[in-house]
Amino acid sequence: MENTLWNTSQQTSGATAQFKFEFLNKITNNFSEDHVIGDGAYGVVYKGVMDNGQEIAVKKLKNRHLDHDSEKQFHNECINLMRVQHQNIVRLVGYCDETRRQCVEHGGKFVFAEENERALCFEYLQGGSLDKYVSEEPCRLDWDMCYKIIKGVSEGLNHLHNGCKESILHLDLKPANILLDNNMIPKIGDFGLSRLFSTTETCTTATPLGTIGYTPPEYVNKQEISPKYDVFSLGVVIIHIMAGRKHYYDHVDTPSKINELVLKNWEKRLQGTMWSHASQEVMTCIEIALRCVNSDRQKRPTISKIVEDLNRIDIARLSLTYEGTNSQKREALVGVHDNATRFASLEGIDNIVVSDEDGGNENQMHDPMDFLHKSITRDTVSTSIYVTQTIEVDILDDCRRNLRLRMEGNIYTPVTMHNIGNLFHWARSNFSSQWISGTKEKVLNDELFSLESGLQRLMETLPAMYDLIDRAEWRSHKHGVAKLLPNLKDAVYDADDLLDEFRWYMLKVEVEGNGSQSPSMDFFNNVIQGSFTKLVKGLQDRLDNISTHLLNMGLHDVTTRFDKSVRPETSSFPYETRIFGRDMELKYIIEVLCKPKNSSSANPKRQKGNSAVDVSTSTSASNQASTEPSTTNLTVLPIVGIGGVGKTTLAQHICSNAEVNSHFDLIFWICVSDDFDVKRLTKEAIESCPGKQATTENLNSLQKILFNIVSSKKILIVLDDMWDDVLKENGRCWKRFCAPLKNVLQGSMMLVTTRCQKVADKVGTRDHITLEGLKYDIFWNFFKLCVFESGNSNNNDPELERIARSIVRKLEGSPLAAKTLGRILRMNLQAEYWNTILDSELWTLRQDETEILPALRLSYMYLPFHLKRCFALCAMYPKDWKFQKCFLAEIWVAEGFVEPQGDIPLQDISCEYFDELLYRSFFQEVFGEYVIHDLLHDMVQKVSEFDCFILKSRSDFKSIPPNVRHLSVLSSIDIDYSTLLSLRRFTKLRTLHCDKPLANQKTPANLIAGWCSQLLRLRVIIFSSTHELPSSIGNLKHLRYLQISSACPFKSLPTELCSLYNLQVVCLQKCKLESLPTNFSKLICLQRFESHGFGCVSVLRRFQKEEFYYEVHVDVVNDEQGLGFRLIKNINQLGELVIHNIVGPVRKEHAVEAQLHNKKYLEKLTLKWSLLKNPEDNAIEVLQFLQPPACLKFLLLSGYQGVSLPSWFQPLNCPSLMSPSFISSNGLKSSSLPRITDLIIDWCRNLSSLEHIIHPAYISTLKKMTIKNCKKLVSVPAERFGGLCCLEELEVQGCPNIYCQGLVAPSLKRLVLGSKEIDLSRNSTCGNLADYVDCCSLTYFFLSCNHLTSIQLQKWNLRALEELHISVCQFLTSIIGHSGQVNRGTGCVRAFPFLTSLTIDWCNNLSTIDDLLAEEYLPAIKRIHVKYCYKLASLPGERFGSFSSLKELEITGCNRLSWRRGFVLPSSLQILSLDNSGDISAWVPSCLENLASLVTLIIRECQHITFIPGNLWSTNLTSLVNLIIWHCEDIVSIGGENAISEIKNVLIDGCQKLEELEQPVKRGSYASNSYRAHGEEENVSS
């Protein structure tokens, strides 16, 4: 065969390969449209799959005229990509540059012409482009991911500018050219416009470059390019990530506004402590971005400076200070105590005997894999030496190493060749330097090399073996494959366990340190002397042998498609002459199909705007183009249900219905199955029409034929058995299929049958119909026909009928299950046989390939492999088991089923797995818990029959599969404990869930110890109860999850537990522990620990560095023994502590026992006293002994009843304290706060003056202060506020007695006076603080004050104000201005020169705001909202036209308004909402005639408006996207349905006189039934 590469040696050497065009044509299926993954100005990108399975992206350059210089563009991108190798730049795999000669027809003659074929081949990046995560709003990824992308792109650009011999300018950096791999690592691509740049000077170019919006001003105006060109583009990209496109373009000229919006948004998303840690990072990134987009090129930073600034963030995240060294040593005795001579006697010794301290007998091992876990005796020559460890001392006195390991994310760390290499490098250096030399060293090194090579090969093999398992499951209906599949799984699981063993050793070396003797001995005894090399080779040979057999059966070319023998093709002709129990569904669907339709009511129920086929006609507005196909007249109705429930049968009976046949011009039936190939389906649609043939292979030609067939016809299309591959390529396949259907007649329908809820939601334009099982009576009649072949019970054997009724109840109303059991029962009409079937599980009965369990198995087979593994585990639980989402998510993580995705926590990914299974109907929600349908449970037990088992009775014991991996023991089982002990022979168990209580007197003491000594591969243990946790639990190196659900007698945990470095979850909720092991900090993967009244969760904390700490919650109510305080003592990595329900007299010795002052990492402390008062409370005394360490930054006291704070609350003792909070501390009267930045005081009812709290010497450091519900607070010293030179945020609420001369705070930026909750019954007061406000830096002001009667604008000096919100001022009657000027001693200034947003709402007595709504007061106003001011009599409507920047105007709930003076609107307006706002009919429609920029129009409850002319929509409101007309009872006409047909989102309802439309009219984003007419239109994208 001809080589696919010109030079194969280049490929193996790592150089860029040169591909033949023929080869690229093959791997992209002739550059098929189905393979398109991107389309740009210079070329189309296709996905290609090479022969070895490697996926690449092939960018085929478009053939253009020579003057377009495509050759130069090709050479640019190819050569520049060859120059760079960097993890943040897309890797060039190869290229193609061929000139082909071919004979073509030209001018009526055949001539030979040359055609250039050029292509670039890149690594295929599964994450797609950044463009799909960037939108009008801020990026929806979490902050860590956003930062990772920002940093990666910056480093990639830095490499282009500074890391190459000659600088490369990209010149087209934008989100579409930033690609993401499956770990979300960003890579810069598309170097078509790039050029070499050997100098930092500026040059000019006449060549068009870049993309509008990402090009800097100097290029736009002068065509100048320099490295600062790319820096500008980078800044735009960062702002789009952090703020969204809309906020960037809205505020491009006001960087401070972008900065504020970004900080506000991310503070909201990263609530509380997370924000306090991430705020500096967010601030740094947005400041970098804003410098990058500076219009002055000279003021932009260089890319190297940007990376330097970002590196400072990383240093702050990652740096850990190592103070001192550990003085404790681990003592290991090996015959002698001297390190120099410890292994001297190994020279010439071939036999090493290792003691088995557990007393285990080698003869008890039943599996070679047990060598992984036990010390082994080897007899080879003559001499022996015992290697044993006698002393176990914690070498980690402090936690710094373990903090670093937690920070590096060991829970996510897989075994990789790099990690294995590090482990063996450590082993060689340790053994060579300490123990062995000479000839023995060479023998040992050879052994290590052989073992390392074997492990690396095993690791390389495993991914292919998992893929082979997946392919084998698709052919498991073949006998030979079904026989080998369990063997393959078993071998793969063995290999996985072996590699996981090495992971434990890697963690042990990291935890205990390279200098420690313990890991060296363990590795030498158990690995080097444990025949690991032979074990690895044996496993490899076993995998090779099984895979060879399977590949010889044809699995190498298996496509993941359903075999026709398993999934026969369906047609529109019913197999059943009669349909049972579907009369209601049949009648409803026929009514929907056949009733007359008007375009406004074609979809009376829900129509989803996000469906792939939108019912509306797309329109462009404000540079926006819809990507939805325009299929206005085609309604899509999905029918959803599990396999075998009768979806296809129902659809067949619909197609054969006479009324349906007469109603439609054409009826198409297409069996889709799991291959949604647009070309195939289009062909089938064409050929289903009489006399039509689809002879061409060209999709465009096929779609033209179909378009002509269906145009101006009323059609019904049935797409039977659709799976979720219809959603591939982000739904583009579905859109391509629907493209020719846009010209069908109104009333055309599409029926889709599917098992997948996700498919129904995405493609449906109506509420889907869900088919459940048949009701019992109907199902019984159907079952009788299946079993007795006659529905007449009189002729049946009564005994058989009784048994049959019992069987029916197990079938969940499934018609296909009834047919399956009917066939099986008819084989033998004897009661004994039928009773056997009754007592059997459905999954154990042999079934044909098209019967119920094989049919349901299709749903399982279609799952992605990772979801298959997760769902298969559920087979170890009985039917009707109530699953908890979080529980399963943790178990799946512990089992190793969850694939890492960047920095996203595995628990979150696992929860997404669960949601996906729920979406696919594998789980059903019942009152907040989840169950599996009985038939699906039977199916999953079948697919897991060799891996999972449930012990229900004594007789089940003999049926346990020998290689079972997951086992549950039900509480109801009647079995003796000696038999339970024999479970230890199933040594491959990974999961043991025993609900049978093991803490009673009958339980032998050695039961759990025996299990822990033999079941060495356990990853998950769940017990109901147990006497104790034995020391042998330390053998379970793979253990990740340990749960005991009931109270147990033990009070402590064995020290050996701390050697379980993989342990992630320990849940002992009802166990009253008194202490934790001293080595608890060694559990570096621990994510959650719970015991009675005590909870510990691993949290990634960020402040100035990124570290893993524990967040601990202690509930001390009724804790007379102080166990919670005692447990705190051993949590060294304590980062946050919350103590709940401190009530009654707490013994001071318990508080002392917590030793909080020694917690070196404690940053946040919350102490919550019970709200139940106790006369014996000793709050002050307890707090005195809970003195935190000097590193504490955040303190919250809730319910504290003390009058003052303890003596340690002084600056010297709390030097790091930044933010104290006092909530419901009613007794507190005085204190002396240290130097702080944030202060919260809430419900401190006895506090009378802030002078009693804030230390005068430290008042200047305060930046943020919140004071709420302090009823007695009177004194807020105004002169002191002037001294608060750093105060930036102030919130005061519920303090009615505050009195001061004026609020003067020159540094204040954000001011909230009163409650932001809209509660008219609340007495929202802030004293007289609002009377006189002089805050020259204030940008945000919220005011809600009940006692306020008027606002005199001349008393406010707020010249920097940008947003003003006046709310719930119930007695406010007027806002008084003074000709737009504010008097100051030195002259006059404009009132609010920078105010862009004004909101006034719920001011019931306000009668006028005319003074405020003046152009001289509001020269920059963009947004005006006036809502629910019921006595507001007038607005200066004639002035609105003078607000040239106004974009949003909303008038709501002001029904007394008079508009006699006029209503004129500016042309800049984009959103107009008029809702119950007086009689405005005199100015409608004239006020709408100049609004070419208007995107959203809402008119609600506006009486007296009678008509809007039809031509207005198309001639004046040309940008309109969203229209709501709701309950306007007098409106008669809006121009008819055609007048508004181009508006994308429409809601018209409750307009009684508007007879030209059938209401409700719901279209686009307003179509959902869940859409509320009030308050949601603002969320519709414009």
Automatic annotation (TrEMBL):
Region: Disordered, residue numbers: 598-629
PROSITE patterns in UniProt: PROTEIN_KINASE_ATP (PS00107), PROTEIN_KINASE_DOM (PS50011), PROTEIN_KINASE_ST (PS00108)
Family membership noted in the UniProt record: Belongs to the disease resistance NB-LRR family.
One annotated GO biological process: defense response
Residues spanning the signal sequence: none
Single GO molecular function: ATP binding
Keywords: ATP-binding, Kinase, Leucine-rich repeat, Membrane, Nucleotide-binding, Plant defense, Repeat, Transferase, Transmembrane, Transmembrane helix
Membrane-related topology note: Single-pass membrane protein
Location(s), subcellular: Cell membrane
UniProt name for this protein: Protein kinase domain-containing protein
UniProt keyword GTP-binding present: no
Database matches in PANTHER family: C2 CALCIUM/LIPID-BINDING PLANT PHOSPHORIBOSYLTRANSFERASE FAMILY PROTEIN, PROTEIN KINASE DOMAIN-CONTAINING PROTEIN
Domain of life: Eukaryota
Span of domain Protein kinase: 31-313
Cited SUPFAM superfamilies: L domain-like, P-loop containing nucleoside triphosphate hydrolases, Protein kinase-like (PK-like)
Gene Ontology CC annotations of this record: plasma membrane
Binding-site list for ATP: K60
InterPro entries (UniProt xref): Apaf_helical, Kinase-like_dom_sf, LRR_dom_sf, LRR_R13L1-DRL21, NB-ARC, P-loop_NTPase, Prot_kinase_dom, Protein_kinase_ATP_BS
Source species: Lolium multiflorum
